[in-house]
Amino acid sequence: MAEPLLRTIGLRKSFGEREVLRGIDLSVAPGERIAILGASGSGKSTFLRCLNFMEIPTAGSVELGGRMLGAERKRRDGGIDRVYAEPELTRVRQRVGMVFQQFNLFPHMTALENVMEGLRTVKGVKAPAARERAMAELARVGLADHAEQYPARLSGGQKQRVAIARALAMDPELLLFDEPTSALDPELVGEVLGVIRSLAEEGRTMLLVTHELGFAYHVATRVIFIADGEIHESGTPDEVLKHPQRERTQAFLARHREFSL
Amino acid sequence: MNYQWNFAAVFEHTDALLHGAVGTLRLFAICLVLGLSLGLVIGLARYARHRLLNWPATAFVEFFRNTPVLVQILWFYFALPMLVPFEISPLMAAALGISLNSAAFSAEIYRGGIQSIEPGQWEASRALGMTGLQAMRRIILPQAIRRMLPALTNRAIEIFKMSTLASAVAYVELLQQGKLIASLNFNPIETYSVIALVFFVFLFPLVRATYALERRLAKGD
Ligand SMILES: Nc1ncnc2c1ncn2[C@@H]1O[C@H](COP(=O)(O)OP(=O)(O)OP(=O)(O)O)[C@@H](O)[C@H]1O
Ligand SMILES: [Mg+2]
C-alpha cells in the first residue's frame, strides 16, 4: 500500500465533559475516496473538522504526507499534549480543502471573486493569474457563465458548485465534504453529486460525510460507519453497505433504507 | 408679540460666522477620523478573546459612555494640563473629549456589526488558510461595515452636533462665534436663530444621505 496521505492516530475530541471522538485511527491513501456514515451527533462533522483543524483535537495526532503535525508539550502531570502553531495550521488548511453543508460563500463577492479569494489573499497570486485559474475552476464545475453573479443570485446547487471551485483553486491534496447536499432542494442534489463524481474520476483523494447511500456505494472506495465517536465498521462499499457485519450498522442502514423508500 | 426682528446686525458679522464654520468643520473632521478609527481598534479589542485586550477596551467603553462629554472637555482643558508637561489648547481638549466619546460609542457599533456576521464566514475563511487578521480584513469587516453604515453615519451627525460643546472652552466654532456676536450686539434672538439655521443647512443633506443609504442597503440584502 502506498504511503498514506493522511493518518490519524488515536484521535480524540471533547467539548467540555462530553467526549465526542474516542480514539479514531484512520489511514487515507492517495486517491482513496472514503464515505463516512453515522447517526446524527455521532461525531462525523467533528472528525472532519479535526482534520483541517477547525477543531483542535484533544488528544491523538494527525499525520499529513508522512509528517506528524503539531509539537509536543509536556503537561504538569507528566503527560504530553500536542500544540499547534497558527502558521502550521494555515499551511495545513491550504492542503486540506473543505466544503460545507451551508456553502458559506462570501456574499459580498462575485462567484469569480469567491474562487479567487484564497489564491489572492492566502497564496499571494497576482490578480491576472488568479483570475485565470479561478475561471478554469468555475468552468470545471460548469459555472463559467455565472462568474460575475453574486451568491444571492445563485441557486443552492450553483452556490455549492462555486464553493467546490473555491476549495479546488487552492490545489488541495485532500478534500473534505461535510454533507454537501443536505441543504439542497432534492432537484438540485444531482448537479452537485455530478461534480463530486467527476472529481472522483480524476482520482482526487476525498473524505465525504453523506446520507446519500447510493452515491457512497458507487463513488466511494471505502465506507466507514462511525458510532459513539469510534469507527464501528469499515470496509468496501459492498462490505459495509450490502453486507454489514455489525448490528448497529445494520440498524442504521435499515432506518435509512426505510427513509429513502 | 410684535418683536422687531433685525437680522442685519447678525450679518454684519458674516466674517466671524465663517470663521466659526471653519472651526466647526475642522473639529468635526478631526473627531470623525479619530473617533471612528479609534472606535474600530477598541471594538476589535473588545471582540478579542484575550483578557489583556478585552478588559481595558471594555473599561474604556464603559468610562466614556457613562460620563458627559462636556465634563470630559472641561476636564481635559483644566485638569489634564496639571498632569502632562505640555499645554492643552481648546481644540485639543474638545477633540479629545468628543473623539474618545465617539470612539466608545462607535466601538459598540463595530463590535455588534462584527458579531452579526454568521460564524460560517469565519469558518470558510479559515478553511482556505487565512489568518484571523486576513479573515477580518477581507471577509468579515467588508460585510460588517455595510451593515453598520447607517449607525456610523448617525454617529457622524452626533459628532457634528457635539462640536458645539467646544464653546465651553472658548474654541472658535459656530456657537462660540454666535455667543460673541450676541453679546456684542445684545441680539441673542436673531443670532441663535441664524446659528441653528446654519447647522440645519449643514446637517440636513447629511441626514438625507443617510436615509438614501439605508434604503439602498436594505435593497442589496
Ligand atoms: N463546538 C461544539 N461545542 C460543544 N459541543 C459540540 C460542538 N460541536 C459539536 N458538538 C457536539 O458533538 C456531538 C457530535 O457533533 P457532530 O456535529 O460531529 O455530529 P455529526 O455526526 O456531524 O451529526 P449530524 O449528522 O447531525 O451532522 C454532538 O452531540 C454535538 O452537540
Ligand atoms: Mg454533521
Structure description:
Chain A contains nine helices and twelve strands. With 261 residues, chain A is of the alpha/beta class. Chain A is globular and about 50 Å long. The mean pLDDT of chain A is 94. Chain B is an all-alpha fold and 221 residues long. Chain B has a single domain, classed as MetI-like (MetI-like fold), CATH 1.10.3720.10. Chain B is globular and about 70 Å long. The N and C termini of chain B lie far apart (54 Å). The structure holds adenosine-5'-triphosphate and magnesium ion (MG). Adenosine-5'-triphosphate (ATP) is lined by residues 15, 20, 38, 40-46 of chain A.
Q: Which structural category fits the helices and strands of chain B? A: mainly alpha
Question: Which residues of chain A sit in consecutive blocks of at least 5 with pLDDT less than 50?
Answer: none
Counting DSSP H or I runs of 4 or more residues, the number of helices of chain A is: 9
CATH architecture of chain B: Orthogonal Bundle
Helix content of chain A: 25-40%
Number of E-type strands of chain B:
0
Radius of gyration of chain B: 21 Å
Give the oligomer, counting copies of the same chain as homo and different chains as hetero: heterodimer
CATH T-level fold name of chain B? MetI-like fold
What are the low-pLDDT stretches of chain B, counting only 5+ consecutive residues below 50? none
Whole-number total of structural domains of chain B: 1
What pair of chains forms the biggest interface? A-B, 25 and 19 residues
Computed Rg of chain A: 19 Å
Write the layout of secondary structure elements.
The complex is a heterodimer of chains A (261) and B (221).
Chain A: E1 6-15, E2 18-28, E3 33-38, H1 44-51, E4 59-64, E5 67-68, E6 71-74, E7 80-83, H2 86-95, E8 96-99, H3 111-122, H4 127-140, H5 156-168, E9 174-178, H6 186-201, E10 205-209, H7 213-219, E11 222-227, E12 230-235, H8 237-242, H9 247-260
Parallel strand pairs in A: 3-10, 3-11, 8-9, 9-10
Antiparallel strand pairs in A: 1-2, 1-4, 4-5, 6-7, 11-12
Chain B: H1 8-11, H2 14-47, H3 51-65, H4 69-78, H5 80-83, H6 90-115, H7 119-127, H8 132-162, H9 174-185, H10 188-220
Bound molecules: adenosine-5'-triphosphate (ATP) and magnesium ion.
